[in-house]
Design goal:
binds cobalt (II) ion; four-stranded antiparallel beta sheet; binds 2-amino-4-trifluoromethylsulfanyl-butyric acid; globular; Creatine Amidinohydrolase; 260 residues; alpha+beta
């Protein structure tokens, strides 16, 4: 397994595309409300990304038909935006944005509340949010890739939830998905050391019931087999000399060209 180590110019490009992905997701979040379709969210993100001289990475990626993924409630990931998917009060919806700017990918997602979700929906969403934070905190000089999944699994299980095994974080750069594979659970397999200049995503999917998932007939939409709720958060991160830079952190938008 060859893991790409990025140099200063590539790191700057990763910072730029990741910032745009974060800005797009933040923009989208301000529009989310009951009654709106996921198709509308897709249009808003597509226009925003194109307006910033970038390309929405999902569009035509292995035949994916839209510019973002929108995954509602029991949809784990890769939901296809549609005019027939109308958000309703109590839903949770993950919006996953990936940009290509100057040839580099930035990938980030969050799960949002539509109106007033019930306690279980809020709990799984907050556990997914904290799982991402704990995964990021597990990235330390001298540490190894499997530390991420160990931290996330221990926490999610303690909260009574399961962690999806079939979809992982991934190396990212000029390619959308590359080595290393970042599992969000304890797994046996490659366990490379963190090296400064590595860029990858952490994107845990946390389920209320079983971790088992099912691919729908559209070839993309992934649901929990028990149709219980699933929530996900994703950041693109850079391993630095001293720790980690969260390239898609919304805090980085303050004082940037995307400040509003
Ligand atoms: N953004 C997703 C990820 O986090 C990948 C979406 S691929 C698509 O890796 F084709 F479904 F858009
Ligand atoms: Co990703
Ligand atoms: Co993503």
């Amino acid at each position: 397994m060859a893991i790409d180590i990025k140099g200063p110019a590539e790191i700057d490009a990763m910072r730029e595309t990741s910032l745009l992905a974060a800005a797009t997701l933040r923009m989208a979040s301000t529009h989310i409300k009951a009654g709106m379709s996921t198709e509308r969210l897709d249009q808003l993100c597509k226009e925003y990304i194109l307006d910033h001289k970038a390309i929405p990475a999902p569009l035509n990626y292995r035949g994916f038909p839209k510019s973002i993924c929108t995954s509602i409630n029991e949809v784990v990931c890769h939901g296809i935006p549609s005019s027939s998917d109308v958000l309703k009060d109590g839903d949770i919806v993950n919006v996953d944005v990936t940009t290509i700017l100057n040839g580099f990918h930035g990938d980030t997602s969050r799960t949002f509340y539509v109106g007033d979700p019930d306690a279980t929906a809020r709990h799984v969403t907050e556990v997914a949010r904290t799982s991402l934070d704990l995964g990021i905190q597990a990235v330390k000089p001298g540490g190894r890739i499997r530390d991420i999944g160990a931290a996330i699994e221990d926490y999610a299980h303690a909260e009574g939830f399961s962690v999806v095994r079939d979809y992982c974080g991934h190396g990212i750069g000029r390619e959308f998905h590359t080595d290393p594979q970042i599992a969000h659970y304890r797994f046996r397999g490659p366990n490379p050391r963190f090296r400064p200049g590595m860029t990858f995503t952490i994107e845990p999917m946390v389920n209320v019931g079983t971790w088992r998932v099912q691919l729908m007939d559209d070839g993309w939409t992934v649901k929990t087999v028990d149709r219980k709720l699933s929530a996900q958060f994703e950041h693109t991160i850079l391993v630095s000399e001293t720790g980690v830079e969260v390239l898609t952190d919304w805090a980085r938008l303050e004082g940037s060209r995307y400040d509003c």
